[in-house]
Write a structure and sequence with these properties.
Number of domains: 2
Mean pLDDT: 80
Helix content: 25-40%
CATH class of the largest domain: Alpha Beta
Strand content: 15-25%
Structural class: alpha+beta
Radius of gyration: 24 Å
Number of helices: 8
Length: 237
């Protein structure tokens, strides 16, 4: 469908520091709404974002989390069909970050489109249906989080812990093992064939009178995929 309204949310809010939340939202709304509707919409958003009780305070005296919530209110105030957000949860406390993520999911669930720029891989995995990895201004890959990980199955690994210390290098000799590295009290084994390696580990434990304490097969994370595609060069999601 056609984009009826496009709102850009900027991180910089210094110029608004001498205004109150409610005044900022009302002034934005009056561009396209009658005054009574402006007040109604501003009030609704302030309550949803937990800002209503501080609506008359000056922005410059409030926390970064509250300022970030205000920015999202400003972006949503005219009910845009498309929303661009740049690092919306960067530097926020856990509670504020969770609230913003919940609101983004809610907004998207209402049929609106959200473009999210972030370096937070876990956040991208939680919020995005499709992810584009950009390297030096060019799209290195674009797909669903699941498909991006599936394209990098050589990065999957097994983490195993025995009841005794075992050198990781021992497992590198197996033809199904790409590499094996220590990971705390565990050994992390990268392999394209987890089933074969698990069978090998069970047999190894039996032959060497060892007991397997824990064993987990791990899919490649988005961070793994990101580093593989960008070859550890500077990039952005």
């Amino acid at each position: 469908s056609a984009v009826s309204v496009l709102i850009l949310a900027y991180q910089a809010i210094v110029i608004l520091g001498l205004l109150s939340f409610s005044l900022i939202l009302s002034r934005i709304l009056r561009i396209s709404y009658e005054d009574h509707q402006a007040v109604e919409n501003a009030t609704k958003l302030l309550k949803e974002f937990g800002l209503y009780d501080v609506r008359d305070k000056l922005v410059k005296f409030l926390s970064k989390g509250m300022k970030q919530r205000l920015l999202l209110c400003m972006a949503l105030v005219n009910d845009p069909e498309v929303l661009f957000l740049d690092e919306p949860t960067s530097g926020l406390d856990v509670e504020s970050a969770r609230l913003l993520r919940e609101k983004i999911v809610q907004y998207n669930g209402e049929g609106k489109t959200v473009f999210l720029s972030t370096h937070n891989m876990e956040e991208a995995n939680q919020l995005c249906h499709r992810i584009a990895i950009i390297n030096h201004g060019k799209i290195a890959a674009i797909d669903t989080p699941e498909n991006l990980r599936a394209q990098s199955m050589d990065l999957q690994y097994i983490e195993v812990a025995f009841n005794k210390t075992v050198e990781a290098g021992i497992f590198s000799e197996n033809p199904n093992v790409v590499k094996a590295v220590p990971a705390g009290n565990k050994v992390r084994i990268y392999t394209p064939d987890p089933s074969a390696v698990i069978c090998f580990l069970v047999e190894y434990a039996k032959k060497n009178d060892l007991r397997i304490i824990s064993l987990n097969t791990m899919m490649p994370s988005l961070e793994d995929v990101f580093l593989k595609l960008t070859k550890r060069k500077e990039a952005v999601l």
